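Deliverable D2.4 — example input (structure tokens):
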């Protein structure tokens, strides 16, 4: 490691602690969701959906804290992204149980149609 960095207290272990798991998203979703925040949330939802049991019918639970841990999005960023995704029909939500838990489901057909529409519009 660079002696100058170590002189500043930046060790390989500090770098490993700071640069934990990266957050990535599908850039093509930015255009169809209206922004990076919504694209990040939808990408994470799609990734989560891929590991679900078929009996879940695409539904999964995520708390606000879990979204923050997985994406880094604040409460307000999540609320804004969720609203945009609901309005565009790309993500469904439902509250179930007592106390209520928030369930999400990606609408893959809607995502596909939005991607096709954007691809068609960008080719004109």
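Example output (designed residues):
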């Amino acid at each position: 490691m660079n002696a100058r960095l170590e002189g500043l207290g930046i060790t390989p272990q500090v770098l490993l602690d700071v640069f934990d798991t990266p957050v990535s998203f599908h850039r093509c979703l930015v255009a169809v969701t209206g922004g990076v925040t919504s694209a990040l949330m939808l990408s994470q939802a799609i990734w989560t959906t891929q590991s679900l049991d078929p009996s879940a019918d695409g539904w999964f639970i995520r708390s606000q804290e879990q979204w923050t841990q997985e994406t880094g999005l604040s409460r307000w960023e999540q609320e804004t992204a969720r609203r945009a995704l609901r309005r565009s029909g790309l993500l469904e939500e439902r509250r179930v149980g007592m106390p209520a838990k928030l369930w999400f489901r990606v609408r893959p057909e809607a995502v596909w149609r939005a991607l096709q529409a954007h691809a068609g519009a960008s080719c004109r």
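The chain is about 55% helix and 10% strand.
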